[in-house]
Each structure stands twice: as C-alpha cells, then as structure tokens.
Write a structure and sequence with these properties.
The chain is α+β, with helices and mostly antiparallel strands. Helix content is 35%, strand content 23%. The strands form two sheets. The protein has a four-stranded antiparallel beta sheet with strand order 3-2-5-6.
C-alpha cells in the first residue's frame, strides 16, 4: 500500500464504532470492551484506545457488526 493510500483509510475508535452500529452507548461499549466481550477479526480486544477500519470485522458475543 502506498503512503497516500494509507492516509486515506479512516480509523474510528472502537467504542464510537460500537455505539454507532448497535444499541450500546459509548460508556456501555467501554464496559464490554474492558470485559473482553469484543473481538476484532476474531482477536479479543480489551484496550479502550483500539481503532478499527471499515474492513475490520467487529463482534460482540456472537453478533457481527
């Protein structure tokens, strides 16, 4: 990937992504992230500073977003 293409990809904080795509608020999203209930591309995530790209597969439990 060229440097220019990498800059065009918009990353979003995980809690914001969850709150915009589910019924969770950002604070509720923070809680489920810390509890280890969220995976990105089948890898568990507990870091609140995690960012996701549009290509990432985010799951909360068995539900995919």
């Amino acid at each position: 990937m060229a440097k220019e293409e990498q800059e065009e990809i918009e990353l979003t904080r995980l809690n914001k992504f969850i709150s915009h795509n589910s019924n969770y608020s950002r604070r509720e999203a923070d809680k489920i992230i810390e509890e280890g209930k969220v995976t990105i591309n089948n890898k568990p995530v507990t870091n609140l500073a995690t960012k996701v790209s549009p290509e990432d597969v985010v799951k909360i439990g068995k539900k995919t977003y």
